[in-house]
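User: For my dataset I need records formatted as: sequence, then structure tokens, nothing else. Please produce one.
Assistant:
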Amino acid sequence: MICYGKGKLQYVLSSKEFAAGGEGKLYDITGQPNLVAKIYKDGKAIGEKEQKLARMVNFPPAKNVLSQIAWPQDVLYNAGQFIGFIMQKMDINEDLNVMYEYGSSAKYPNITWENKIIIAQNICAVLSSIHNSGYVCGDLNPKNISIDPKKGFVVFLDTDSYHVSDGTKTYRCEVGIPEYLPVEIQKKVRGGYTLATTALPTFSQDTDNFALAIHIFQLLMNGAHPFACAILPSHSSVAAPQPSDNIEKGEFPFMQKISGIRIPPYAPKITILPKKMQALFKRAFIDGHKSPSARPKPEEWHIALAELRKNLKICKKVAYHQYNGSLSSCPWCGVTESYNKAFNKVALAQIPIKPPVSMPTKQRAVRLSRSAITKSIIILSIILVTVAIIKFLPNFSIGATNAKAANTETTNTETTNTETTNTETTTYAYKYALETPVNIRAGKGTKYEIIGQMKKDERFEMEDSCKAGWCKARARGIEGYVHISQAKETPTPERAITNGNDKEKANMKGKFFTDTRDGNKYRMFVIGKQTWMAENLSYNAGGSKCYGNSESNCQKYGRLYNWKTAQFACPKGWHLPSKAEWEVLTATGDRSAGKYLKDKSGFAALPGGYGHSDGRFFNAGNNGSWWNAGNNGSWWSASEYNSNYAYYRSMNYGYEYAICSYYGKSALFSVRCLQDSP
């Protein structure tokens, strides 16, 4: 395809796109390897977008930062029609949120505090340049910031969604994630209003500064969101408020005492930070709640972070533990201990009852004769002598044979083994190691010694009835415990989403399932060994809602459910998929699975947005979230993270990922049902 930019500059696009999203496709440009073209899909290249991009092209940020922002460099036309724009080709590495992961499942568990501080400084530098050019990011969520974990450099993405004003007209940012939106925006997206329809003003540099403060906080505080919290044991019957709830109420649990609430167990106290930095967070999250202009600017954060970097100590026990030099001991060691106590508790097992004991019956006393007593003594003496002889004979072959037999395990089939003890029967199923290495520990938790390791895709045996946490496991002649998150059902993925499924998809063509509860029909889709509904569930269960309370959205996207309702929403013969079952579906890997599930697989991941129990809704048509059962879609899973949170799967129509995360159970997400195994 040949396109033209401003001034009749010609661009020759590659014949096939190299990436695609909800809004458009990305193409290489012949002879210009450092540039790419984004071509919008039909209906997406509206006039306002052309005007917004034209202004961004004419008034770019400082040149020294353009290599760190996917900034529009030219507007594209074909046959006189606006179709997209040109931008610099960026090296995309990791989403920022991988730096927020904590614990044994973290992708970069040993990254130092200093390196996280550097990443925070780099984010400040890029945002400062954007603000100095008069622009507002708007949707400054971690998925729109890419990082290089080795060098620490950051790249800002999705700039064509920025909130742009030319002095007379505002071109809106129409998307956002609630956990990064300040109170002044949270209040505007109620009663069916969205970021696209609510009254202006919405985003500003002050709202960007709010999101910036959250990112800095998460980088410094073990990934903890500043408005995340946990329930005290004395209030365990109450669900923990979501971060977006605390944002709206202005309750910052790291600095404010809130009844029944404590900070998450994986987070350190805010007192580990220098007082100057604590004061900046107070301005961002407490003072800024009433006065948004009080929030610190990127330049202030950059200076404070530089001062913190100059005054770091290294822990004597753990080399990658670094901390504020004014502290007398390493706070991270204590946080790790607190985390292990909270999340690696030993599960109590049930004990089988013993056979009932008969009550002795009353018997008449019998007087023995002297001869009877004499005979009894002789018989007892013979028995005792016999026992003594057997016990002390120097022949141990019987004992050795029995010991050997006791240690023999019998393999029944290729898929399951059974180990029998006197008190219980444990059934094992073959699993495969998720990564290299998978640790086998002596007990349930990371505090226990590593007694063995497995390589990626290595087969091992795991307790079949264990569905969460640390499970009994056997591998390489070692018996111990492996966390279920490190096990998968199959070895090297069969890449069911991309390869070899045409025949399976053809077998399901035209097949429907009818829900007898309401008569709704759902297309069915086979992927690998799983049969899924190829549409979001629409059953009107108690607690479910339509996006924006509009029935037309239910007809298009299906209904939204809280986690409790989602558990029982699927019809008979179907169920809410677990986290592990979602992972089988996305076996190609989270960074590309979303593309195929949305566009090519037959799964048809239609993004129904998501909502809160207080009536706020976000991003239908672009984001979808399914309980693990639009702009973004989120789908529930059946797997709990803890008593207040559950896992879900999320996809965004602007990207190829299929992210697994956890969220509060009161949120409203979509549901996809999975057919029960035969």
